[in-house]
Amino acid sequence: MPRRGRHRITGPIRLIALVAALLVCAAAVAFGGTASADGSGDDRGSATEQDSGSGENSLTGSDGDDGDNRAGTDGSDNRAGTDTSENTADDGEKTGGGDTTDGRKTTEGGGPGGQNDDRAQDGAAGDEEAADEQGDDEQFPGRDQAAPPSPDDFVDITDVAPGSGPDDKGGVFAGGTFTSQCGTSDHRNSDNYQAAPGKRNGAQHVHDYIGNTTTDAFSDDDSLAAGGTSCANGDRSTFYWPVVRDLNGAGDDANADGGGKDGNVGEILTPTSAQMTLHGHPGQETEPMPQNLRMITGDAKAETNGDENVVSKWTCSGFTDRTTEKYPICPSGSDLVRILDFPSCWDGENLRSNAENEAVVFPEADGRCADGRVAVPQLRMTLTYDQPAGREFALDTFPEQQHSPRTDHGNYQSLLTGEQARTAATCINTGRAC
Question: Which secondary-structure segment (H or E) carries 302?
Answer without folding.
Answer: helix 302-305
